[in-house]
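Q: Can I see a sequence and its folded structure?
A: Here is a first one.
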Amino acid sequence: MAHQFFFNPYILDNLPAPVAGFDVVQDLSEPRLRMYITSRGVKTFFVRKRVRGKDRRILIGKYPETDIEDARGAVVGILENAQKKPLVRRKKITFKQFLDLYLENKVRREEYSQMKLVRAIKRHLVELFDKKIAEISSVDAQNVIANIQGRAIAARMQELLQSVFNYALDMGYVKTNPVARLPKIVQERRVRPLNRAGLKRLVNVIEKMDDVILRAAFLMQVYGFISRSKIFSMAWEDLDFNHDLWKDWPLSDRATVLLQDLPQDGQWVFPGRGGMHLTDPRTAWKRVVQQAGIPNLTMDDVYKFLMRQVVWASDKEDLRVNMNTLLDDLLEPSM
């Protein structure tokens, strides 16, 4: 059961973040109003409602961008709208036309991530593009998913189709979701091959690289506690060395020193070809991990390993201290 109290700014501002997963709290003034608190300190208002036989969690907005009173006032209208049956639209549109609406209205990603998603859609779902969305059957969806190589990408495309058709159902373009009846794809959980000894070997190999930009970009995978795509797309204008920040993200001491030593003669911290930033130096990374004796290691593995190890703190300076402590513990030679 959710912990209940009267929502007010002082209490919500000082709610502790859980170590993992999320916590839920409930407002006594408006009991239908609840809030998620994630392990990263993100707080989001939401309401629960059983709609057409299914339990739905409807997000209202993040706190403090959404005021407490505004969230309370929005509850009644949201619940009333959730009860309304979707309009059945007579106008038929193609899957591609509706997919464009879905991407515009429902997907919120950074530019690089959005482009990656669009490329995956064009590669794997093109067979459905010209079909009327109301005429796509479970067999059509299953055939498309069955032709995708790799369980992981097939599972993601099935989840995407499920979400697209749920939105089409809410918008009244379809009467049922053809993907809902498909069996869920079982994925084998990948074992990430990195440990402390491997991380030291990795850093030692990277430090010997001749290419200054690639060496710095790869070291930032360790020092930055940031995902690969965000590191490669760093712009100088987003760095604040006076406060050790990249945008709103704290930088470890090692990351700050590393970045300050790079030539600041362009837009991008890690420039690539054609005036763009670095994108995917997979060949160079493959050579590095081979030399480090971890041939199956990905840059995402490094990020996940470090984020599991670091002690999370909502205060930026506390988090930065925890980053520094972890890196010293992992990389300093043992006495």
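Q: Show me another, different protein.
A: A second, unrelated one:
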Amino acid sequence: MKRVYLDNAATTRLIPEVLNEMLPYMTDIYGNPSSPHYFGQQSAMAVDRARQQVASAINADPSEIIFMSGGSEADNTAIRGIAERYSKKGKHIITTAVEHHAVLHTCQLLEKQGYEVTYLPVDEYGMVTAEQVRDAMRDDTILVTIMFANNEVGTIMPIAEIGKLCRERKVFFHTDAVQAVGHLPIDVQAMNIDMLSMSAHKFHGPKGIGALYVRKGIIVPALIVGGAQERNRRAGTENVPGIVGMGKAIELACSDLEAKANKMMVLRDKLIREIPLRIPEVKLNGHPTSRLPNNVNYSIKYIEGESILLMLDLNGIAASSGSACTSGSLDPSHVLLAMGLTHEVAHGSVRMTLCDDTTEEDIDYVLEVLPKVAAKLRDMSPLYHA
């Protein structure tokens, strides 16, 4: 049976070049980077090198990079840190209704602590505008946190415009860029981004390692305390193999980034174009053009996404119905509901996300299998016959 992996928004495979870079730090170079002796300093130099690689990828200074366990910890650190440090200035935060739960749940937690959060609505494509952000700003607004690109439908937000507005209004701006790093060109200086979250396993690095960019001059209290690591900004012995792997992965992902993105867009657009020609009554979710180069999200009406995924898996195709972080929930996607889809249509969504390794043969196989799956499930669907 042919195997096709189209769930790269959930996680990507660890590529050999990254693994080979990590291996020595799992065996021979094992010193604690906080130790002053030779063994420790070998590890410390590797961490410094990776910090430079990560910083270079987003046009930051290495001192502005804090290594963390992943995107969720980075989101929590940024949002809760700003709320704690600058609460005397105000207790109003602006975000969107379609954020990852690492942002939404953190904001909801702060609401219980007396903060006020504005959840901006999105249009039918899952997009917010800088004008919406401007209109929502108040004198006591301390933070705007808006994702760079949506993890479910791939819509890219107008980050540079929002960043410019926030800088003019002297409001801190954080973006969850977990899905964007390694796929889109990012310049934190030009885009006026104050804080940015990223996660290595979204661009062929290891799981369990990520980073938070914090612009110089911004003080974000440590979420995890108990040690002086990461310049007192994140306690705990550094995950040296993971950090080394993240550095190598982001360097590779950002080399020839445009060519890689163009290759994925050709295959992405083939899926987007062909699916409605082969399956009647489907709806493309997300912005038609301002979307991640690897994201395709369709709602197939009258059938459930979970059934589609199970039958695709039986045919060797791995996809998802949305965020892997909420795969255990029976509720429809909060992103799709915020975009105006009904519960029934939202339940029938399938997300397919590509990577550098995806081939045209893979896409052709999906286009052969998916219509058969949809037809079979519709034959059993009382909604379809009604």
